[in-house]
Amino acid sequence: MSTHTLGELISLLFMAVALGMDAFSVSLGVGMQQIRLKRILIIGIIIGIFHMIMPFLGIIVGQAISNRIGDLTTMAGGLLLVGIGTQMLLSAFNHEQRKVMQIAGFGLFIFGLSVSIDSFSVGLSLGLSGVKTALALLMFGATSTVLTWAGMLLGRKVHGLLGIYSEILGGSILCGFGLHIIFG
Predict the structure, then answer these.
(1) Which of 4, 52, 70, 78 reaches 20 to 30 Å from 119, CA-CA?
(2) Rounded Cα–Cα distance for residues 48 and 62 (Å)
(3) How far is CA 134 from the centre of its chain?
(4) What is the C-alpha separation between 136 and 125, in angstroms, rounded?
(5) CA–CA distance from 62 to each of 55, 136, 172 (Å)?
(6) Helix or strand or coil: residue 113?
(7) Which H or E element spans position 43?
(8) CA-to-CA distance for 69 and 112, rounded, in angstroms?
(9) pTM for the complete prediction?
């Protein structure tokens, strides 16, 4: 293995971890909702798939249009996370309705999209760099899946310690992360 190839692998690994950290942070908040292990498994896989699809779409679009679209996708992802976090916060204070957004069906699609939409803009730049696309996409997907699982399992443990306050903490994490994406 050449030094150039090893350097590219290490760079891709760091990029994959950086992209997966948002999945970890958001999953930490969502994991506080007392989600079953089977659902955690499915959510992690879906987020991993989205972390492969979105950069791939970014690569395709990046070759066709300018980089300005990256700012729009980042803004949309941030707004989606703020919306989900706000819903969690409001439901924590609404004692009649204890069910937060279902992370199943269309809700799972929206969740996966909101967590991985920032990887679209990474795909825009990857399309111009000549990186090994298949390797990058597999690393992004695998890393985000593992970090999602870790975040949700840790969130489950924290929920047991904090009880009802974990929903407030989880919603705050989602809102904070969404605001960080928008303004940071």
Answers:
(1) 4
(2) 21
(3) 20
(4) 12
(5) 10, 16, 33
(6) helix
(7) helix 37-62
(8) 19
(9) 0.71
